[in-house]
Design a protein that fits this description.
This protein is α+β, with helices and mostly antiparallel strands. The protein has a domain at about 1-60 and about 220-280 and about 315-365: 3-Layer(aba) Sandwich (Beta-lactamase), CATH 3.40.710.10. About 30% of the residues lie in helices and about 15% in strands. Its EC number is 3.-.-.-. InterPro entries: Beta-lactam-related, Beta-lactam/transpept-like, Diverse_Enzym_Activities.
């Protein structure tokens, strides 16, 4: 992987990120590149990156939770066409805003219930895109007051899953169920749905259905003990665009009040490659289920999201026009599976998305 190493090293040397871990799996062989440090020069506590460094994978949590949900579909616990009302009564009898940026009391009745597939395909009328007043519209202002943590994963919601969903249920939908793709919030709803359907907490259901069967021993909603030292330092951009330490209050070093199905997991490159390769091989879910998961569910005008660009959305992950699938994380992580070449590629860094990080990820995708 000389060419890939050179590409990644160039971006680390330019300071796009202080370090990274990348893996490309193809034909039963996984090659890993480890570059740089967990911190920029002079940063307190910076350590060399290692293959087992832990990263906050943020939105790369979404496909893992979606896989757990689809395992519940496979065993008949859930049905894609089922209304969520029985398991999530807080979301029954919805009202829908006439104008996504309008007042909260200007609503109409939902035309139908929200289904399990609506939640997985992010078409439940919950979430955001950059053309619906996020984060300043009345609805998002109300969500912030309720402590729902819609959007960035820092700070996390302080509420229990039941309280979080109860609060969410006091707000109207932004769109009719099934009508348009909206980002993020459906994944947190899916986490609550998976927990209730599985009869346990979301961490326990994920462990039972995904993490333990695949041997993903480093993937969890928090780290503790000696593993805290393996967690990479987080970085974000200051007012002048230079990287500064991420102030997350140690959110990933203690059990969260609300295990976020949207952005809550930490993981390693080997764990995530194991998840992605097992998914592609039909070892985690049946091949027919995987095929449904990675088929674009969006139709016509549902495409063109500001956040998705030219990509579509399957069940818990993005699908591009060429049939490749995967997703990214807001702290500079990305995963791509190319069924045509049998390639799985994972890049983990820990700087929130910015111009240099976008350039790094684009270069990584082009290189693999």
């Amino acid at each position: 992987m000389t060419d890939l190493y050179a590409t990644l090293a160039e971006h680390v040397e330019r300071g796009a990120v202080p370090g990274l871990v990348a893996a490309v799996a193809r034909g039963g062989v996984t090659e890993v590149e480890v570059l740089g440090s967990t911190g920029y020069p002079g940063a307190q506590g910076a350590r060399p990156m290692t293959r087992d460094t832990l990263f906050r994978i943020t939105s790369m949590t979404k496909p893992v939770v979606a896989a757990a949900a689809l395992s519940l579909v496979e065993d008949g616990t859930l049905g894609l066409d089922d209304a969520v009302d029985d398991l999530l009564p807080e979301l029954a009898d919805r009202r829908v805003l006439r104008d996504p940026q309008g007042p909260l009391d200007d609503t109409v009745a939902a035309e139908r219930p929200i289904t399990v597939e609506d939640v997985l395909s992010f078409r439940a009328g919950l979430g955001f895109d950059l053309d619906v007043g996020f984060p300043t519209s009345p609805l998002f202002a109300a969500a912030a007051e309720l402590g729902l943590a819609i959007g960035p994963p820092v700070p996390p919601s302080p509420h229990s899953p039941d309280d979080w969903l109860r609060r969410l249920g006091t707000l109207p939908l932004l769109a009719q169920p099934g009508a348009r793709w909206l980002y993020d919030t459906c994944a947190d709803v899916l986490g609550v749905l998976v927990a209730r359907a599985g009869g346990a907490t979301l961490p326990d259901v994920l462990a039972e259905r995904v993490l333990t069967p695949l041997g993903m021993s480093d993937t969890a909603f928090h780290v503790e003990g000696a593993d805290v030292d393996r967690l990479a330092a987080g970085w974000t951009d200051g007012p002048d665009g230079t990287p500064v330490p991420l102030q997350d209050g140690g959110a990933w070093t203690r059990p969260p009040a609300f295990p976020s199905g949207s952005a809550g997991l930490v993981s390693t490159v080997d764990d995530y490659v194991r998840f992605a390769t097992a998914l592609a091989a039909g070892e985690l879910l049946a091949p027919a289920t995987v095929a449904r998961m990675v088929t674009d569910r969006l139709t016509g005008p549902q495409h063109g999201s500001v956040l998705l660009g030219d990509r579509g959305w399957g069940l818990g992950l993005a699908v591009d026009p060429g049939g490749r699938y995967g997703w990214d994380g807001g702290f500079g992580t990305t995963w791509l599976t190319d069924p045509g070449s049998g390639t799985v590629a994972v890049l983990l860094t820990q700087r929130t998305f910015s111009g240099p990080v976008f350039e790094l990820i684009s270069a990584f995708r082009a290189a693999v």
